[in-house]
Amino acid sequence: MHRNSYSLAALAAAAVPGLVPARTMPIATPAEDLDVAGIVGEDGRRVMVLSPGSTAAGVRLERDLKVADTLTGTSLRSVIPPVLGFVKLSEGGRCAVTEAPVGRPLMLDDLAGSPVLAGSLGQKLARIHTVPRYAAEAAGVETFTPEAMLAAHRARIDTVTAAGHLPAAVSQRWQALLEDQELWEVTPQFVHGDLSEESLFTADEQVSAIRDWSSSKVADAASDLAWLISSLAPERFDELYAAYREELPTPTHPRLVERAQALGEFAVAEWLAHGLEVGDEEIVADARGMIADLDADLAQLAREEAERAYEEMRAREDGSV
């Protein structure tokens, strides 16, 4: 059951003693079946109300809140909006009210224009990836072994390959990546699992809040970096990654960035596999367009490599005359 902002304001008033809603403000949410609104009280207090529109959304919300509550006992506490109250819903389940995230949603354009913000995000990612194992276990998140993760990647690639949607160069590249054993020597770590512009907030060129922990798990740290390495200019990602490495207490895997790049590419295969599974031609066409772009990039790299090899050969020949 979906609710408008006025209904959400009434739920917030019921969940938080003393809150008298004065106005509402929209807050972006990545889930279509989760109603979210910002509420400003008469005293200026700002809260966020989250109401699931389906049973599945209710399960995700409970998972999100359980993980977030656990993380308030870690170094991430300053970016986790605390829960203020709950109220039962007539159709079952419950609505939650938290403090409103400080700042505004973090856009990729914000990162592109601010090395300081990129560094802040790198630091927060490092803190996510160093959440202690006992905290992850307390949050009840699922743990994936390196073998299980690699098998899942291989299954997706096999699905789209069998469907005949991969150009030869892309197929060869992805198979070579899957066969590179050193690349997949992963030490599972706690990860957010679904970073996006909707889950991050910024204020004063700092990451001010992180939300939506429903996809968090103990898995590959590269999965949180894949979205960023695929979206940011190389120099901005390098700044983010430098801050990330500096914040970590131990060295990263020497090929972590390379693995993040691979996962960014594999995400296209996952998108295509999803489109094929649900029979959505628009998704299939979108994914095939991204694969065509990758194929063109690989062709350009091959041409550049051939030109370099030719120039080196000419230089050697000229030097021997």
From TrEMBL:
Signal peptide range in chain numbering: 1-22
Keywords: Coiled coil, Signal, Transferase
Domain of life: Bacteria
Domain Aminoglycoside phosphotransferase: 43-247
Disulfide bond as UniProt keyword: no
GO terms of molecular function: transferase activity
Coiled-coil zones: 284-316
Presence of the UniProt keyword Membrane in the record: no
Name of the featured protein: Aminoglycoside phosphotransferase
Originating organism: Brachybacterium vulturis
Organism classification: Bacteria, Bacillati, Actinomycetota, Actinomycetes, Micrococcales
